[in-house]
Amino acid sequence: MARVLGFCVTTAPASPTAASPMTAARLIARDIKLAHSVFALPFAVVGAFLAGPFPSPSWGSVRRFAAQLVLVVVCMVAARTWAMVVNRLADRDFDRQNQRTRRRVFASGELSVRDGGRALWISAGLFVGVCSLFWVFFGNFWPLVLSVPVLGWLALYSYTKRFTALCHLVLGSALAASPLAAALAVNPEALTRTPAPFWIAGFVLCWVAGFDIIYALQDRDFDRAMSLRSIPAALGFSGAAWVSRGLHLIAAICLIMCWRADERFESLVLVGVIAVLALLVWEHVILTRLIRISQRDLASEPPALNLAFFTLNGVASVALGACAVLDLCI
């Protein structure tokens, strides 16, 4: 093991033998943190509910919608698994050289590229197969038609740091597709009836891009050393923080417009909007403190960074999603 430019550099591990399917599934689920589906899944659920038969459904329409909602959730999990495994495989050489990421399963050699390829085929096959069920059972061919292009767009993010600092916006756009895709899958006409899914998508795009910039702060020096592109690498800590603040300001405007865009959104959604805005302000208070006390190494403050990146944004997503669903159903 050697130290180059202050980063841990290791030789490539020996090729591992293929793991059993159950072992590979367990290790991949741990590595890609399935719990982080919480960032996009609530907004896909809201998109589905916006397209559903609410607030005055019949028993038959509720049963139909329940089946569609199950398919939407399965598609979300499969699509995220595909995207994250692509990311881990594409970045495994970089991850191996980064002290923060060198224990990831493909970087460390705990799983082989063949194991990753098998996971990709399974997740992609599951996603396309479930998308086809919308056509088989509900006569909606759009999810199947768009399934492969969606997988391609999700995979693109993993390569954008090689050529553009706007990679954070690409990630945001990938997650922003979730409310639109869910609404389209449940009822394609919903996207012409209400602009709310588009405002939600705008919120998700700017919200995710903003907090991804916060997360990327800890890799600023590594990205510069490896000639990788990111807002922190291009603008430094202070500049990146201001870009994140600007994106979250736009996200806040989109969220308020979403609340005003659909008459079914009433007091509960307003409560959710206020809560999200308060959490975003708190997130940036934490960020400002981190930058002030730890300019040289944000990774030295993992509890505070995890609070700003994971905890607060996860709470914001779940809270807003719950308020929106309740407002639509009541």
Question: How would you describe the overall organization of this protein?
Answer:
Mean pLDDT is 89; it is low at 1-12. By secondary structure, the chain is an all-alpha fold. It is globular and about 60 Å long. The protein contains 14 helices and 2 strands. It has one domain (18-49, 57-329): Tetracycline Repressor, domain 2 (Orthogonal Bundle). The longest helix has 32 residues, at 59-90. The protein has helices spanning 21-32, 41-51, 59-90, 92-97, 105-108, 113-138, 142-160, 167-186, 190-193, 196-216, 220-225, 231-261, 267-293, 302-329; strands at residues 2-4, 7-9.
CATH architectural category: Orthogonal Bundle
Q: Tell me the domain tally.
A: 1
Which range best describes the helical content: under 10%, 10-25%, 25-40%, 40-55%, 55-70% or over 70%?
A: over 70%
Strand % is: under 5%
Looking at this protein, list some descriptive labels:
two-stranded antiparallel ribbon, Tetracycline Repressor, domain 2, mainly alpha, globular, disordered N terminus, 330 residues
